[in-house]
Write a structure and sequence with these properties.
The complex is a heterodimer.
Chain A (H helix, E strand, L loop, with lengths): L1 E4 L9 E5 L7 H24 L5 H21 L4 E7 L2 E8 L2 E7 L5 E6 L5 E7 L2 E5 L5 H14 L7
Antiparallel strand pairs in A: 1-2, 2-3, 3-4, 4-5, 6-7, 7-8
Helix pairs in contact in A: 1-2
Chain B lengths: L2 E5 L15 H5 L4 H29 L10 H36 L7 H20 L18 H4 L2 H30 L12 H32 L13 H35 L6 H14 L15 H13 L1 H15 L8 H24 L1 H7 L3 H31 L5 H27 L14 H30 L36
Helix pairs in contact in B: 2-3, 2-4, 2-16, 3-6, 3-8, 3-14, 4-6, 6-7, 7-8, 7-9, 8-11, 8-12, 8-14, 9-11, 11-12, 12-14, 12-15, 14-15, 14-16, 15-16
Chain lengths: 162, 529
């Protein structure tokens, strides 16, 4: 999913796009969903514990913890992002999230934009330079990848304007 | 030239996953389609095994008197038939559908936790082995009924421990699967697919997964208390030590009644998918269907004691559970009305999936009505533990759940295999199943009303004719499922090429991908308008 694009027009000075993975719920919505899902099970387990059937409580607790962890894990990847920025002689592909940030720096004059069609109709996009191939646009739809490829094509290799 | 376009043949990126082959493809698979396929084959195998147990039951009941099995073996057959059909056949089949269809329907590339998905499936195997192996331990398999009521389950042999352990494992599998499904549906919907745009099958599975989350720990707790009663000197349910056996029934049915809806809500989802396709009309009253499903789920937690009216409870309690049980017919009636309204003035055709769907609406409604009869307290006191109850729950679980599964298989198998199934044989399978099912179970209403108790290997001469008819129907029903197996295998091996859309009136994201669905789908989410 494309979340920001500072300059979609041809501009040799600055170009930066940022993408994030598709996630149907925001962090706040996730919290609300988990709370909503746990109310009735907690009520059931506590009710049984009150009448003496306390062994249901630890099973319910384990399960709610597992559900909460599942949403927490998904939420951890919600902050993942990929950005491509071009400034002068530097093209930087940056990937980040809660796990850390990694950067690949390429020279835009030497970069090839490689489009690869898969048999299932998918389009994969990568930047190739000096034997190094970096896939980009992993969070985008096919149409968005095509648009990104067009934009990068105008800013890299022989097409790059001086 | 600063840009190149390459085909898949001459470019192999680091992320270009090869299509795995061989045995390890299945053992280590994290692909939702492969795991869905394994679930479906597992459940069909268990269905045939538990069906074979049913054949033995009907063989013994063909005539009055004891002919083939001893009474204790008969009780083992009924117990394991119930346990395996519920936990080994119906539930895993719906999980198989969920694995195949939920990601395809919401535009997700896979389940949220693919490795956990693999684990959920492979947990089924040791559980199934434990259940099947329990026939061969001293004393034979569990014989106290699938409900495992004390005192029999407290006093029984090693097979009870094996069954309890098997149910614990199946419970873990179900809970992990449910968390996976809930996380997938909430977080991985394609952009634009709001909750109220989700297909009904996805909605019903979301609510089913929630029911599993809420109900499974109750079963786990009850089983653990049972095992501590058996081996660690506690007396939760052991009357000899001051415990209360009826308390187990309350706890068990607190799980058991939602479990009934766990087995029927996904079937409602399948019907709500098939009927609009072959009526060539959108589903009537989509929002009311969603709310009715949620209402059924909530009500399922406040009706449990209708399974135990005869155990004795205060009149206020009896009235509460009678009325709350009757109340469930309101959202269920909304659903039946909506299916009929969807068909009303539709441009209908009757391919095999639609035949199954129409039959399910009709036969499930019969099961619903006999359920209403059982809900009436004074009537239930007469019918409790008679064959009327056996007829009722088979109309709900076979013609409701199992026949929906069959209809769902016919509906989606072209998408799964890339081939059309043999329509003629499919229709033969439908008619044989439907007729044989009714021949088997409709007379049980009469044997039950006449007073024949369930779970007995011998019976009074007055029930002989109806039992003979039921047994003949059961043998035909069992044999006709081999035809189903043949149709499925034939479809996998070949047949007319299926188009992407498969059915003219089909709508939804799963029909936008090729048939068979590629190993990887929706790696980039589609945009839903």
């Amino acid at each position: 999913m494309l979340i920001s694009n500072t300059n979609t027009d041809l501009d040799p000075i600055s170009y930066r796009v940022t993408f994030k993975p598709n996630c149907a719920l925001t962090a706040n919505q996730k919290k609300k969903v988990v709370l909503l899902l746990t109310v009735i099970p907690c009520f059931i387990a506590i009710g049984f514990a009150v009448i003496g059937l306390w062994l249901i409580l630890p099973f319910m607790g384990l399960e709610i913890a597992a559900l909460g962890f599942a949403f927490y894990y998904v939420n951890n990847h919600e902050s993942d992002y990929e950005s491509i920025s071009i400034a002068g002689d530097s093209l930087v592909v940056e990937r980040g999230g809660k796990q850390g940030v990694s950067q690949h720096e390429l020279n835009p004059y030497w970069v090839k934009v490689v489009r690869r069609e898969l048999p299932n109709g998918e389009l994969r996009l990568s930047l190739l330079s000096h034997g190094k191939q970096i896939e980009v646009g992993r969070y985008l739809t096919r149409k968005q990848r095509e648009a990104l490829a067009d934009q990068l094509q105008k800013r890299t290799g022989a097409f790059k304007q001086h | 030239m600063s840009t190149t376009t390459t085909s898949h043949h001459d470019a192999h990126g680091h992320d270009d996953h090869g299509h795995p082959t061989g045995l390890m493809r299945w053992v280590k698979s994290t692909n939702h389609k492969d795991i869905g396929t394994m679930y479906l084959w597992f459940s069909f195998t268990m269905f045939l095994f538990a069906g074979a147990l049913a054949m033995l039951i009907r063989l013994e009941l063909f005539q009055p008197g004891l002919q083939f099995v001893r009474p204790e073996v008969f009780n083992q057959l009924t117990t394991l038939h119930g346990l395996i059909m519920i936990f080994g056949a119906i539930m895993p089949a719906f999980v198989g559908f969920a694995n195949w269809q939920v990601p395809l329907m919401i535009g997700a590339p896979d389940m949220a936790f693919p490795r956990l998905n693999n684990m959920s499936f492979w947990l089924l195997i040791p559980a199934a082995i434990l259940l099947l192996a329990s026939f061969f331990v001293p004393g034979g398999a569990a014989a106290g009924g699938w409900t495992m009521y004390p005192p029999l389950s407290v006093q029984g042999g090693m097979s009870i421990d094996m069954s309890i352990f098997a149910l614990h494992i199946l419970g873990v599998s179900s809970i992990v699967g449910s968390i996976n499904i809930i996380t997938t549906i909430f977080n991985m919907r394609a952009p634009g697919m709001t909750l109220m745009k989700m297909p009904m099958f996805v909605w019903t599975w979301l609510i089913t997964a929630y029911l599993l989350i809420a109900a499974m720990p109750v079963l786990a707790g009850a089983l653990t208390m049972l095992i501590t009663d058996r081996h660690f000197g506690t007396h939760f349910f052991n009357a000899a030590g001051g415990g209360d056996p009826v308390l187990f029934q309350h706890v068990f049915w607190f799980f058991g009644h939602p479990e009934v809806y766990i087995m029927i809500l996904p079937a409602f989802g399948i019907l709500s998918t098939i009927i609009p396709t072959f009526a060539r009309k959108p589903l009537f009253g989509y929002a009311s269907m969603v709310y009715a499903t949620a209402a059924i789920a909530v009500l399922s937690f406040v009706v449990w004691a209708h399974h135990m009216f005869t155990t004795g409870m205060p009149v206020a309690g009896q009235l509460f559970f009678m009325y709350s049980t009757m109340l469930i017919s309101v959202p269920t009636g909304v659903k039946v009305f909506n299916w009929l309204a969807t068909m009303w003035k539709g441009s209908m055709t009757f391919e095999t999936p639609m035949l199954f769907a129409v039959a399910v609406v009709f036969l499930f409604t019969i099961g619903g009505f006999s359920g209403l009869v059982c809900a009436i307290l004074p009537v239930d006191i007469q019918l409790q533990d008679t064959y009327y109850v056996v007829a009722h729950f088979h109309y709900v679980l076979f013609s409701g759940a199992a026949m929906s599964i069959m209809g769902g298989v016919y509906y989606w198998i072209p998408k799964w295999t890339g081939h059309m199934y043999d329509e003629t044989l499919g229709k033969w399978h439908f008619w044989l199943t439907t007729i044989a099912f009714n021949v088997t179970f409709f007379p049980m209403h009469f044997t039950g009303l006449a007073g024949m108790p369930r779970r007995i290997p011998d019976y009074s001469q007055q029930f002989a004719e109806f039992n003979m008819i039921s047994s003949l129907g059961a043998f035909a029903l069992g044999l006709s499922q081999l035809l189903f197996l043949y149709v499925v295998i034939k479809c996998i091996r070949g047949g007319a090429k299926a188009t992407n859309q498969v059915w003219e009136g089909a709508h939804g994201l799963e029909w936008t991908v090729p048939s068979p669905a590629p190993f990887h789908t929706f790696e980039t989410p589609p945009l839903v308008k």
